[in-house]
Amino acid sequence: MSARQSHVPELTDGFHLVVDALELNGVSTMYGVVGIPITDVARIAQARGIRYIGFRQEQAAGHAAAAAGFLTRRPGICLTVSAPGFLNGLVALANATTNCFPMIQISGSSERAIIDLQQGDYEELDQLAAARPYTKAAFRVDRPEDIGLGVARAIRAAVSGRPGGVYLDLPASVLGATLDASEGRASLFRAVDPAPIQLPSAAAVDRALGVLVRAKRPLLILGKGAAYARAEGPIRTFIESTGMPFLSMSMAKGLLPDDHPQSAAAARSLALKNADVVMLVGARLNWLLAHGRSPKWSDECRFVQVDVSPEEIDSNRPIAAPVIGDIDEAMKLLVVALGDRPVTAPRVWRDAIDAKKAQNVARMRAHLAADAVPMNFYGALRAIRDVLAERDGVFVVNEGANTLDFARDILPMHEPRKRLDSGTWGVMGVGMGYAIAAAVESGRSVIAVEGDSAFGFSGMEVETICRYKLPIVVVVFNNGGIYKGDEVNRWSSDPAPTVLSRTSRYDKLMEAFGGTGYHAEDPGAVSAALESALASGKPALVNCMIDPTAGTESGHLQSLNAESTLRPSP
Question: What confidence score (pLDDT) does residue 123 get?
């Protein structure tokens, strides 16, 4: 061998450096759809022991990555191709940013020089510019030696402060570029303490207790930010020490069990309307809480807000006592401070809430006890509730209009971070991605309770569920329509705008890919199907037939549904 041959340098390329950087930063799973130019990233990741979950459409893959971020507190990774694939994933990335889920979308892209001159390259799109308005941060790597820096910065941006979605653009030329392997290794590094804990000031804690101690009708509202912070320990201590009634937003359910005696969920309207001091813990005063405005709220109500982001304060109502910092640490400090300034919710207030709860619980019990024919939401959800009562650790994924609204009230949660739903944006189509992420990240069983319309957004992902043999049971509430299936088009033979196919056999779709399908027309059949499916631990789908007249326009959000006052002429 010649001297020249003995000194041939070892080379690496952008594909390997991306995987090297992700592996160095603890990434163990990624979700996506492969194609030009990123297919080899997935192949190399698999060779390194990083699990790659391949989807049928990028939006569902992105939703899975976002849910993984929420469940693990590490950024979920979504891998997409350029242009159309990137845009499909961008919907999920924007949703992750709105929901405050840490997620990184890594997309291949076309050549910059051609894009900038708009010369018509393959899948040409200025992806970085398109992503910036919808993300917490967006970066492009223009040299292979900067891949490690780009990955580390993306991770830090995704998880620090208020978490969110981050876009990382990797042009094909960078992925394919080669450089000396030793130089490549030297360019990589692990992000140190990417989400440093921030403590609130002692003055903020004292001010918050000063407001609470004077409250005659205090109420505490838990949001998914508290669930993400894993703050259930000090939150429970604080609530039980003060006797304060509490409400849990949907993805905060289970921080304290829904049947906790201080839960005001069954008296929500009364609690919101009459509270004179409300303590928001990881919850935003947005549309989900009517922006804190009358008539749902008292104009005299004062607010304490515990949040990681100072920008959230005063977003809708003036906040009398902001407590800014890590929610878990903030609640620990508030618990300690109770020793000097004890807070006690007056008994007359708690009794008023308990009395209203008793009335509403009795009304709900009557609805659940009635077996309507054909089956309605109450009967089907009662069956699911009873099956869940016998099993611990099952995740519940939930989306739809009426399906979401009814299930949120009827399916109790007793463990934190076991419920995933449409969230802050109210996005439909998240169900299959969220269910897949919950199963992959936890190894536990998942029940996805889906409206038939919502299921249609990502229903093809049942093939993904079957391909990876995931323990997911999809329950499709099939009432043959968007909201409900009984609207009649009086002007042509076309179906009305809200009508879907009532005869759809979604169970056969699952069977087509090797899973088990069930067709259920009464609560007993729903129970039997769920018991069998969960016991098997294999992919299954229950086609749950619901009365097409059951449901209301836009579910509980009729007030947001503008209606034309000008009706079409016959």
Answer: 87
Q: Is there a single domain that holds both residue 159 and residue 18?
A: yes
Residue 365: inside a domain, yes or no?
no
Half-sphere exposure of 326 (CA within 13 A, CB side): 15
513: how many CB neighbours lie within 10 A of its CB?
A: 15
**58 and 146 belong to one structural domain:** yes
Q: Let me know if residue 364 belongs to a domain.
A: no
Residue 196 placed within a domain: no
Half-sphere exposure of 290 (CA within 13 A, CB side): 15
Using CA atoms, how far residue 429 sits from 105, 422, 434, 556, 561, in Å, is 18, 8, 9, 19, 20
Residue 33 zone, left/alpha/beta (φ > 0; ψ -120 to 50; rest): beta
- Angle value at C-alpha 72, between 68 and 75, nearest 5 degrees: 65
Domain containing residue 138: 3-186
pLDDT at residue 569 above 60?
no
Average pLDDT (195-213) is 97
Q: Are 363 and 404 in contact (CB under 8 A)?
A: no
| Residue keyed to tokens 């609640």 | 331
Total of domains in the chain: 3
* Helix spans in 229-279 (H): 232-242, 268-274
d(CA 414, CA 434): 19
Q: Hey, which residues does 31 pair with through a beta bridge?
A: 53, 78
Structure confidence at residue 124 (pLDDT)? 84
Least confident of 58-62, 113-117, 366-370, 553-557: 553-557
CA angle 104, 105, 108 (to 5 degrees): 140
CA distance 37 to 429: 26
Distance CA 29, CA 135 (A): 21
378 plus 321 within the same structural domain = no
pLDDT tens figures, 175-195? 999 999 999 999 999 999 999
Q: Which residues pair with 155 in a beta bridge?
A: none
The one-letter amino acid code at 131 reads A
CATH code, 426: 3.40.50.970
The SS3 call for residue 63 is helix
Answer whether 69's CB lies under 8 Å from 87's CB: no
Q: State pLDDT tens for residues 124-135.
A: 899 999 999 999
